[in-house]
Amino acid sequence: MITMSVLMIEAFYGGSHKQLLDLFQEEIKGCSVFTLPAKKWHWRARTAALYFMQTIPPSENYRVLFTSSVLNLAELVALRPDLAKLKKVLYFHENQLVYPVRKSQERDFQFGYNQVISCLVADVIVFNSAFNMESFLTSLGSFMKLIPDHRPRELEKLIRPKCQVLYFPIIFPDITRFLPAHKLGRDLLMTDIQDIEDGKADDGLMRNSFACLNPVPTAKQDTRNQEGLSNISDSLEDLNSIRRTEGTSAYHGEDMEHVAINPCSMLGGSGNLEENFSAQHMPLHIVWPHRWLEAVHCGCYPLCPKALVYPEIFPDVYLYSTPQQLFKRLQTFCKRPYLARRNAIKVDLARFSWVVLRGKFRSLLAAEAGEDL
After folding, report:
1. pLDDT in tens, 117-128
2. How many independent structural domains does the chain possess?
3. Cα(52)–Cα(70) distance, integer angstroms
4. Which residues in 85-100 are b (16+ Cβ under 10 Å) and which e?
């Protein structure tokens, strides 16, 4: 924990915007935070600068101004010249130049324009993904063509040198004792991530941490499995007592009175799931997570479109190109759930861990402008 004098402003304090500021307040000293509730997004983007102009008290202690791209930063520093001298950091959770709209003619020019002029006055511009950054920068030219005449030129050349990518940071809880053995890749162990930052392990550890596990679990893994089994034993006993109810059972033709749920099979700790009766008949749960960053950490198998930011995050094995491919994959998993359950997910979650990213964010929020992260 180090002391900083950071003025943090969030015009839409909700969702990931709130999560990021809350994390900063917990982990970084010296933050002065000013926010508006997360509602009426369009009004926040258009009028928040005037509100914060009146609300933020003058202070000689501010050194850095951090805000998301919802706020019109150019308007704020024009209204408050005392803030113009600060190191101004603009963070993009999303950008309005390519944000989905129902029809292209419905795109409201003013909100994208707010973000463009905010970038022009910012000292550092941070995007939460390379896709977010590139889609914004490469759309500047076509976006400015919406202006009827006297259009500004070469804005990308002015803005790009100030841009960088810092993934959204997440504090991943240690859930290894709840996971089956086959999902206990080294990428899920927070101790390894900590070792990398502390210099106790080489950088190659995380790159190689997603190799398939040895079929024979280590003693440490076996201990975790036993802990997980004991924690859910009561729930499994309840499952074993389920009886088939006329007209409501999803297990057609099976007498559930005689079906026992094998906890080892349920967790994938032992046995052949393909041949195990209970594993074959346990339903496949399909979720639509808004926080994928967290779902994969908890053992979910990702299945994403080969578009937008997803190829930047997920290997090809987890991507589909057409609706037909998605349907086929889901059909396969529904018929053979063990194919998804026994898969050790190979996604580099360390890139999104606060433990790994905190040094870069602290440098970002330090008073020195222009530091290469």
Report:
1. 999 999 999 999
2. 2
3. 13
4. ebbbbbbbbbbbbbee
Q: What pTM was computed for the model?
A: 0.74
Determine contact, residues 253/308, Cβ cutoff 8 Å: no
SS3 259: coil
Question: Cα-flanking dihedrals φ and ψ of residue 246, to 5°?
Answer: -60, 130
pLDDT at 339: 82
C-alpha–C-alpha distance, residues 68 and 127, integer Å = 10
pLDDT recorded at residue 289 = 77
Structural domain boundaries, residue 211: 176-352
pLDDT at 341: 80
Distance, CA of 345 to CA of 280 (rounded, Å): 21
* Local structure of 59: helix, strand or coil: coil
214 & 332 share domain:
yes
Q: Judge residue 350's burial from the number of C-beta atoms within 10 Å of its C-beta, 0-12 exposed, 13-18 middle, 19 or more buried.
A: buried
> Any bridge partners for residue 8, and if so which?
33, 66
Contact 4, 365 (CB under 8 A): yes
pLDDT of residue 104: 59
